[in-house]
Specification:
The chain has 345 residues and is α/β, with parallel strands linked by helices. It contains ten helices and ten strands. It has a ten-stranded mixed sheet with strand order 7-6-5-4-3-2-1-8-9-10. The protein starts with a strand and ends in a 16-residue tail after the last helix.
Length: 345
């Protein structure tokens, strides 16, 4: 099987929520809700297929928005995916799911459905909207019954970090197949202050302990250590070790920006990473993605420019989160503000 290339595709800005930390509506907000036309969506698929043919990859779509299910041609697009054998994950809201809808999603080839829990009930509903917490937990069952992998994702910030252990408990109790968290990226008009590096490391330690306790009990939830600072934590605790045959100058892991994904928004803008402000690299209706990849995207693969990580032995595997660094300090290559490692000049 060819190695997959991930396209995070926002087909619409239409959404049932106005989450306080959403990058689509951050800062001055989204002045106009955009959605792609059917012909534009067919054009995007063709451009992505061309990209994968050039680089001998297989396309994988993370279909999102807004809430993608609100797009009038949502099901038509899934039919196109099915006809081409293209696998996909949906990143959306819980509000339009039921057993029948989830069975149909499965028939079209949906592999995972990702929803968010950004706090316990009061905090999550403050971030998103009243009733969202209970609805999210309820719809995990619908997703599971359809044999789609249910994914719960948490955006961690100073506001909700102390609730993360409780969120893990709630996700496990509801039967989530996968749980993961990533950090909040400042985007303008912030509703939250950043965590300190020490606070974040302490949170990783708490979560690591909880993950191990659940695993020892035979819990079937998979705990995805999505944030690359987990690599630093596991290096310090002896879980991760640098291979003796690691090649100098090779990149083995860490942030995938510039390596194996890109984002496409409803107006056709292509981003190196949607969470990195100012990372526009082209337009899917005007540019060949295969050309964008080796031209405009190259500026996100200059690893020796990392101000702190370039001096660290974990550079090939970690590099923290450049989106958080960019949102905090205005530079993709700035130091990750939650990285606690001391690096000598």
């Amino acid at each position: 099987m060819k190695e997959y290339f991930a396209f995070q595709w926002h087909i619409t800005d239409e959404c049932d929520q106005r989450c306080k930390h959403c990058y689509t509506f951050s800062g001055e907000g989204c002045k106009e809700l955009k959605s792609m036309t059917w012909e534009q969506m067919r054009e995007v698929v063709a451009n992505c297929e061309d990209f994968c043919k050039v680089y001998d990859r297989a396309p994988y779509f993370y279909l999102t928005g807004g809430d993608p299910i609100l797009h009038p041609d949502f099901w038509r697009l899934l039919d196109l995916f099915k006809s081409k054998g293209i696998p996909f994950t949906i990143m959306g809201n819980p509000f339009h799911l039921n057993d029948q809808v989830c069975r149909e999603l499965k028939w079209y080839g949906c592999q995972k459905y990702q929803m968010s829990l950004d706090g316990l009930r009061e905090t999550h509903d403050w971030f998103r909207k009243p009733g969202s917490f209970d609805c999210t937990l309820e719809k995990i069952g619908c997703i599971n019954r359809a044999c789609i992998r249910s994914v719960v994702m948490t955006t961690v910030s100073a506001t909700n970090r102390m609730e993360v252990p409780g969120i893990i408990d709630a996700a496990v109790k509801a039967g989530a197949n996968v749980f993961a968290f990533a950090r909040y990226v400042p985007t303008g008009g912030e509703v939250d202050a950043s965590m300190t590096a020490r606070e974040y490391r302490d949170l990783l330690a708490i979560c690591d302990k909880k993950f191990k306790e659940y695993e020892a009990e035979g819990c079937e939830t998979y705990f995805s250590k999505k944030d690359h600072l987990w690599t630093l934590y596991e290096y310090e605790t002896g879980v991760f070790q640098i291979a003796s045959d690691a090649e100098e100058g090779m990149i083995y892991g860490g942030c995938n920006c510039g390596n194996c994904h890109m984002t496409i928004t409803p107006d056709g803008t292509v981003y190196a990473c949607r969470r990195v402000a100012g990372s526009q690299v082209g337009n899917v209706f005007e540019d060949r993605l295969a050309d964008v990849w080796v031209c405009e995207m190259e500026r996100y693969r200059q690893y020796d420019k990392f101000e702190k990580c370039s001096k660290c032995k974990l550079k090939p595997w970690c590099r923290g989160c450049p989106a958080v660094a960019n949102g905090t300090n205005g530079s993709f290559y700035a130091a990750d503000p939650q990285c606690w490692k001391e690096v000598k000049p």
